[in-house]
Amino acid sequence: MGEAAEALLRVDSLDFAFRDRRVLNGVALEVAEGEIVALLGPNGSGKSTLMRAICGRLQPDSGSISINGRNPHTDRRARALIGLVPQQIALYPHLSVAENVRAFARLSGTPAADVANCSARAVELCDLAEVAARRAGELSGGWQRRANIACAVAHSPRLLVLDEPTVGIDPPARREIESLLGRLAGQGIGILLTSHDLGQLERLAHRVAFMIDGRVAVSGAPDTLITEYFDQRRECSLVVDRPPSDEQAGKLALAGLGVGDDGGKLHWSGLVDEQVRDTQLEHLLGDLGLSEWRVRRPGLDSLWRHLYGQAPSADIA
Amino acid sequence: MILTVAQVMWLALWRDRGSLILAFLLPPLMFFVFAEVFSGTGENELEMRVVILDSVESPVTGRLRAEMIALDGLVVSDQTALDVQALEAQVRSGRHDAAVWIRAEPDGDLDAEAAIVVVGDASRALATSVVVGRLQAMLQSSFPEFGIARAATLVDALAGPYSDDQRQALDEVLDGLARDQAGLGGAGAMNDVRDDASDNNQGAAGGLIERRLLAGPDRGDDGISYYAGAVAILFLLFSAMQGAISLIDERTSGIVDRLVAGPGGYTTVVLGKGLFLTGQGLAQAGVIFAFAWWFYDIDWPGHFGAWLVTALLAAAVSAWLGLLLASLCRSRQQAQTASAFVVLILSAIGGSMMPRFLMPGWLRELGWFTPNAWVIESWQGIFWRGDGVPELATGWVVLAAIFLTAMGLTLWRAAGLTRIK
């Protein structure tokens, strides 16, 4: 996906400085029709600024942004192609879901004659029919999140920009949103999103773009990146009943495991080559008095730790 | 534990500047305004603006004019009306609280028309009474001979006639008093006021001072149009400020982010809110004047066109002042505090809480910087004085200027809020 399709959103060599601080530093990014691209990075890495620039709210110092060949900062028609889903529940709480969708469809430039049809389609697409007549303020978090998305797609945008679309909702509701975004992409809508749920992004995103110091430093399909960075290594984690001897600790370290945060030498984890695990670690495990032993394929969280030197949860509240 | 809760409340108040201002700055400010008004209503502290017409222009009436000009609490305009119609027009227009027409030299003739006519507006009858009271006091102290002459005439009619010697002695006393008072002032008895608020304003025989109240075109009004206007603009401002706060809710809820990304941009949103709040204000003013029409016989249908222009401007001014305030505030709480502050102060100074003629001069002048004063004056002009477009034009232009300035500033501020660079 992506390479063959024509780019719907194209960001090229984008620079932006706020006062003396360089926030965007030569950002390059593309999103194709029907493609889901996740923008990742710790606070201050430039994600929000980039999203604002894409939505036309910020004039970059240099570089270019185009949506279907138009500049969103200067061209209303380009902005009409964007549907923005803010992190907050951006709905009128006293209006019903259907009224909200209609209002935002109209405010987003849908011709009056098409509002009813477009709104009905958005409600259906987002599976909101059963709550369409209820006031938005009375709905649960999951329904509100879906209504939030419905309002953004009511005017049939080509590019959907979502800022943390699943924050604060329970796992079943997250899966609903995940499924919804998949359906929207299936309809040819290009999706650019940020999320703290790296597991979800791994399943959902066609590509992820890690931002470091105001630029997209690493980009690609999650599987490809994980393979590229970790190859045959696996994420291993073990918990032992008693602290290992110095000799055992030395062998664990040699295999690539480090002491966990508990400080008691009871928890060890790290990326271990499959061959090393099979040849060296398995023999050692029997002598350690294991209470837990986990092996898993590295994920985006592993890549995050590798790139930023910290766990994702340490950065994202 | 009770003290801890109290301490938490105190810290919350101390750190919330808005609440602090509302709690400790607004009350003394409101007190100051009311104190300035009501402490000035006693004795000679209430300032009344009057214009004088001297139809006699004799040395005696010249002295009368000089004494009036020197009176405390009477601000005599430099303007001199050319005739009675002009005099009345000045009062009707609201430029003066009352007018003094010296139509004859005061003398002892009990059958003659009152020498001094105080012309006032029936909607500001209190102002007329104050002026009459001041003139009475001035005549008592500075022109005792007038009172004595009238008393002597009365005694002559009831118990007389005087002998030639008595008549000569009386004339000498009166001449002496007149000479003395020309330079000194003195004391006497003068409570000879004829009240005439009848429709035709025809004076009856008798007193030295006649009070003539000018009725508006709506005879049954009796100040209702004033209070309808005063209440309308007060609540228009309150409602608009509350409605405009949704601007802040939308900013914090992310709705603005969503809309700014759209093709219409934030300007469309702000203009839409302005349109709604203007419509809401128009409807509110309509409800108030419909009540005044239904229950108090204000001729609303008869002045509907001019009323509509003023109501539209009043609603637009309220709407855009509210939106400007909301665009300047960071939070709902801050906006609520600021709006309460602004509306109460504007309404107190602008005449929504008490008639402006009761205020000291400087406060009256300050009132012209509020939309309340212009709106109230415009509606009073329409319903009370029967003003036409030429008389109303100034007020309308001022209100339009306030509306356009507030709208321009709001849109400029909104653009700044939604665009980082």
- The helix/strand class of chain B is alpha/beta
Quote the beta fraction of chain B. Answer: 5-15%
- What would you call the quaternary organization? heterodimer
Could you give the order of strands across the largest sheet of chain A? Answer: 5-6-7-3-8-9
Extract low-pLDDT stretches of chain B. Answer: 184-194, 196-206
Largest sheet of chain A: 6 strands, mixed
The total beta strand count of chain A reads 13
Number of helical segments of chain A? 12
Total of helices of chain B: 17
Largest interface, with counts of residues having CB < 8 Å to the other chain, equals: A-B, 30 and 19 residues
Terminal-residue CA separation of chain A: 32 Å
Terminal Cα separation of chain B, in Å? 50 Å
State the helical fraction of chain B.
Answer: 55-70%
Shape verdict of chain B: elongated
Output the radius of gyration of chain A.
23 Å
Provide the spatial order of strands within the biggest beta sheet of chain B. 2-1-3-4-6-5
The average pLDDT value of chain B, as a whole number, equals: 79
Q: Any low-confidence stretches of chain A, pLDDT <50, length ≥5?
A: none
Total beta strands of chain B: 6
Order of helices and strands of chain A: EEEHEHEHHHEHEHEEHEHEEHEHH
Can you walk through the features of this model?
The complex is a heterodimer of chains A (317) and B (421). Helices cover 38% and strands 27% of the residues of chain A. Chain A starts with 6 loop residues before the first strand and ends with a helix. Chain A has a six-stranded mixed beta sheet, sandwiched between helices. Chain A has twelve helices and 13 strands. Chain A has helices at 47-54, 76-79, 97-107, 112-125, 141-153, 171-186, 198-204, 222-230, 246-255, 274-288, 300-308, 312-315; strands spanning 7-18, 21-32, 36-40, 62-67, 82-85, 159-163, 190-194, 207-212, 215-220, 233-240, 258-259, 267-273, 290-296. The mean pLDDT of chain A is 86. By secondary structure, chain A is of the alpha/beta class. Chain B has helices at 2-15, 17-24, 26-38, 59-70, 84-92, 125-142, 144-159, 164-183, 224-244, 246-253, 255-260, 265-296, 304-328, 332-350, 361-367, 371-385, 389-418; strands at residues 48-54, 74-80, 98-102, 116-121, 193-196, 209-214. Chain B is built from 17 helices and six strands. Chain B has 421 residues and is an alpha/beta fold. In chain B, helix 4 links the parallel strand 1 (48-54) and strand 2 (74-80). In chain B, helix 12 packs antiparallel against helix 17 and helix 13 (304-328) packs parallel to helix 17 (389-418). Chain B has a six-stranded mixed beta sheet with strand order 2-1-3-4-6-5, with helices on both faces. The interface between A and B is medium-sized, with 30 and 19 residues.
